[in-house]
Hints:
CATH class of chain B: Mainly Alpha
CATH architecture of chain B: Orthogonal Bundle
Largest sheet of chain B: none
Oligomer: heterodimer
Structural class of chain A: alpha+beta
Helix content of chain B: 55-70%
Amino acid sequence: MQNPANPPRAGSLLSDPKARAWLFQVIAVIAVVAFGWYLFQNTQHNLQQRGILSGFQFLSNSAGFGISQHLIDYAESDSYGRVFVIGLLNTLLVSVIGIVLATLLGFVLGIARLSPNWLVRKLATVYIETFRNIPPLLQIFFWYFAVLLPLPGPRQSLGLGDAFFLNNRGLYMPAPTLDGGFWPFLVAVVLALSAIGVLARAVRRRREATGQGFPLLLTALALLVLLPGLSVLLFGKPFVWSVPQLQGFNFRGGWVVIPELIALTLALTVYTAAFIAENVRAGIQAINHGQTEAARSLGLPPGKTLRLVIVPQALRVIIPPLTSQYLNLAKNSSLAAGIGYPDMVSLFAGTVLNQTGQAIEVIAITMSVYLAISISISILMNVYNKRVALIER
Amino acid sequence: MLTHTFKPDQPPPRTSVGIVAWLRANLFSGWFNTLLTLFALYLVWLLLPPLLNWAVLDADWQGSTRADCSGEGACWVFIKARFGQFMYGFYPPELRWRVDLTVLLAIVGAAPLFVRRMPRKAAYGLAFLLVYPLLAFWLLHGGLGLTPVPTSRWGGLMLTLVIAAVGIAGALPLGVLLALGRRSKMPAIKVLCVTFIEFWRGVPLITVLFMSSVMLPLFLPEQVTIDKLLRALIGVILFQSAYVAEVVRGGLQAIPKGQYEAAAAMGLGYWRTMGLVILPQAMKLVIPGLVNTFIALFKDTSLVIIIGLFDLLNSIKQATSDPAWLGMATEGYVFAALVFWIFCFGMSRYSQRLERRLDTGHKR
């Protein structure tokens, strides 16, 4: 028995949980800092040995290599900094296209998996089980090396009408170029959209107050057709289509989607859609069947039951895993390095790193970009999630 | 005395039993469903016969050179000719029995773990986990009486399996520690663990592999040279441990508070509470989740192609660019896909079965 009158012995400080926690934390922090310092020292020494100057000055040096796809103007004399921006834009481009397409395909497949139609259900299952069990990089390679590259050259392109051409240099398609009537057209579209917005609010208010309906969809369609149509009549066409033409050995005019982008988008879409489909299925199945029965007993037809009762509740379950699928897709877009699509990783962590040797700076920049993308997608999704989350009494 | 004799039951209407009824209920229950069925049938008809023709009926199976392929269907001769390379990489052919033996030992050694009612399973599992890696390393790498085979000659499916196995074995303990750290009440530990986990989860594996291949040599003292495979393994383990940590955290959170309180009431300290009470229950809960992370890891091993290791995918990619076998890309990648698919699908089925079997308690 300890006598409370006695002063505590030195050893008892260690048996005080609070003191121990402090000690433990201090040791952990010191260990991490010391380890970091050790790595830093080694790195400094190694860099000196190799004569590499650390710092970010290299970003303003001239790059001196060509890039197959750039969304902003680029010449070989431009700086590494600009190369970085181009890589970032290309990563964002493929991520956004992939997310949109994968969401669409994923929702269709997820609903198909729950279809009362046996054949449709089985086909969706086969799709999902096949594609989610094959590594995405392998799928990218398959589309690129086995499908797109063996395509014929420009002269023997596969054509769809006289507008779309697919060959081993990519997909050529018509591009709109601005014409005289563009600005009035734009104004007309914006006007029509805002009119529809105002109208929709008024219609909803009236329905809530009086219960009377209004043919909103038809009116909206009419507005969307009439106003821009009027602008075209008065001010002329907004766009001229520039159609790709075979000249010599290649096509001119129109838009070109490079094969790397096609392969990457296809593979990411097909792969991620399989996962999204499973999330959608799980979300819909998570809704109690009583909800469907209640809706049916209120006299709602199946379509409205799905739209007004099931989907809003299922979305709450679907959104969190959907977010992580989007994040995965954005991160998987870095697999572009495998086929040389000029994204962040293959341009910056690949070519620029090799040319400059600034390993630490380049990798740090690349990683922080992905961290930033990850964090912003999850913040956006959290905001949305909060809006649709269940507000319980 | 009155006797009732029932008339025999009428058979059900012919439209409500048998194949016709099934067809009607499942495929043609309305005009929309009928339309869907027809569309699906059209899709099947569009895809299946050409695929079957290419892969089986018109395919070439016999022979050993390019000339043995007629060119109509798939040329499986290519896979046959290069099978050794796809499985073992550049591992010396006369020493390949060592790889086979390693795999056999893994199967034989791990088999008792799958027997449901084996006594002392945990002790056996621990012993296996301690002994087998050393044995496997000795067999694969050589030394101590065996001819050494440098890791640069490892390749093919064998390398894929090595990376996946070492990755999960290394990531598991680290991940458990990180998960415990993240749930810790000590703020400094918690912040360190959360930062570590979120950092690795926020970046793609490719950048991690790039980092470990170009930055690790800079971080280490000058005289230390570090094997390329080891660099990749370190990257994979760090990356994977963050994902394992999140799965384990899910399991820890599912354990009711009463368990902690009961352990505290028994006078158990932190490590004993965790080791004897919480983790045994939590780990059982997260086994399916861990299998799923392992599937993801298995698919991710294909990325080591980026830093120039010859795993299954890279071996096949190399083989398809061989001038003697040009134009075999489709066959090669389909074969790779099949191998990956068999592994991943098998594991996912196993995880689903486990999930059903382990779904006993804790559900509220």
